[in-house]
Design a protein that fits this description.
There is one protein chain. 29% of the residues are buried. The longest helix has 25 residues. This protein has 7 helices and 7 strands. A 4-stranded mixed beta sheet has the order 1-6-5-7, sandwiched between helices. A hairpin with a 5-residue loop joins strand 5 and strand 6. It folds into 2 domains: 137 residues, no CATH class; 76 residues, no CATH class. 35% of the residues lie in helices and 18% in strands. It is α+β, with helices and mostly antiparallel strands.
């Protein structure tokens, strides 16, 4: 008989799904809560040790994440080794952020097999240039051109205004990126979080709290809780 969730397991799963929802994480089209339960049952031991990490690591039969806001940039099946493969990889890393990436233009360095610049166009006017060295891997910084590494630079470019990105290790030890956006469309704060909670500025107690501000505060609290949980699981 396959492993079954206990009442306690179901309560823990429900609590985490509620946290994910409040933080802005959404299940991918075609994925239902029942699919999440089935995925958890397939790795019940890991779920009981690190429930948040296990649930956010779930993928379908085609290796697509269960949640729309998540990507796995180190996946050897998609990591580029040539200039021609780079546009598809960039879209795979940036798309879960939900930003309007309209065009990717790759300009290789003259005579180079692995280095160059990728120009990303977001919306009508926003353009970001990202330097790359495919032979160095996705995380190696380049102090000469000021790059923090291909993957960190892509994450920073893709985050929408007022959004955040968290980096954590999956149950299989793979690196995952989760993108989160605030409800308040007028927010301007942008932060990239590398495996630990992001600080939030305390609101001014003298200002009246609007409904939008209350929703944004609730979302911020949920995001903080989510990153705190993921960081704690990584440390355990």
């Amino acid at each position: 008989m396959p492993p079954q969730l206990t009442v306690t397991d179901r309560d823990i799963l429900a609590a985490h799904l509620d946290l994910f929802d409040r933080a802005g994480l959404r299940l991918s089209p075609g994925i239902e809560p029942a699919d999440v339960e089935d995925g958890v049952c397939d790795d019940l031991e890991c779920f009981r040790l690190a429930p948040a990490t296990t649930v956010l690591s779930l993928i379908d039969a085609d290796a697509h994440p269960f949640f729309t806001n998540i990507t796995f940039p180190d996946n050897t099946g998609i990591y580029p080794t040539t200039h021609a493969q780079l546009p598809a990889y960039i879209r795979a890393v940036c798309a879960p952020a939900g930003t309007d990436l309209r065009d990717v233009t790759v300009v290789p360095d003259p005579g180079a097999l692995h280095t160059g610049t990728a120009r990303l166009q977001f919306g009508e006017w926003d353009v970001v240039d990202v330097s790359y060295d495919l032979s160095a891997g996705g995380w190696e910084p380049d102090r000469v051109n000021g790059s923090h590494g291909l993957i960190p630079d892509l994450i920073a470019a893709a985050i929408p205004n007022g959004g955040e990105a968290g980096i954590f290790s999956t149950a299989d030890g793979e690196t995952a990126v989760v993108y989160l956006s605030e409800i308040d469309a007028g927010a301007t704060r942008t932060a990239v979080v590398h495996g630990r909670p992001a600080p939030h500025t305390a609101p001014d107690a003298k200002k009246p709290v609007t409904a939008a501000a209350a929703r944004a505060a609730a979302r911020n609290a949920a995001i903080d809780n989510l990153f705190t949980v993921l960081f704690a699981e990584a440390e355990s």
